[in-house]
What does this fold into?
Amino acid sequence: MSRSPLSRTVEILSDARYVQAESPRWDARDGGLAWIDMATGAFHRGRIEQGRVVPGAAVRVGDQIGAPVPLAAPGAGWAVAVDRRIVHVSDAGVVSPLVTDVAAAGHYMNDGGADPFGRFWVGSQSMPRAPHCALWSLEPDGTMIERLTGVTVSNGLAFDRSGSTLYYIDTLPHRSIEAFDVAPDGRLSRRRTVCKVDGGNPDGMTIDDEGMLWVAVWDAGEVRRYSPTGQLLEAITLPSRRPTAVALVDRLLVITTASIGLSEPTDADGALLGVEVEVGGSPASPWSGEPVR
It folds into this structure.
């Protein structure tokens, strides 16, 4: 248990510990929670009950899983970015292809999320890291459009409620939150820096109902809340050094963490954490396409 300077209590929500838990998603269809273990290629689903994560189904999808988004219809499953492609994972755990060979050879899919218009946005990274990766959108009709090039480590993204602004993190080399205008057809323009993120690497991000940005800061042991103009509003100190991503389940801020690369992990490293906040958030936007039949 840890407390922020504002006396927030951070709780460990999960019994399980993960190598690199990422991409928590609140599912509007059934109120459930989904997340991934990036390093093991596993997609997890469960529920939050009485302040604890109750795990449910888990399926190994590939080697390097990046991000999941729900489909719109109840029971329709999930679109999941994994390795160099995007697949459909049914509620029964059946994995089938949606789009193959998206990322270049030697690259792999990383963080992503859906916008209010039903597009699934996802980016890539590579090892060794260099600015030759990209950000794409999977359109509702199943086509894949490259939206941004010259990316190094595509990480957190969040859309405002109207879908007209994209907040985006390419973690390296600038360690910044950026913003883009988004046209109705998904084209990006007017790229600008919202703020630099000091003391660690900005990773996963979500947006709350006031339009403020919550960012997990890897190696800083913090989750921070920024205004859309870049003002640091709050920093919550965590008992885990490597938070990876965040989601708001109503007013519960759910934080995934990693134990990877730590020689002496604590009991909280690799756990799912939670902290109550005053301003809630909305469930994950869905991809509005359909699986291949």
About this structure: The domain at 2-276 is CATH 2.120.10.30 (Neuraminidase).
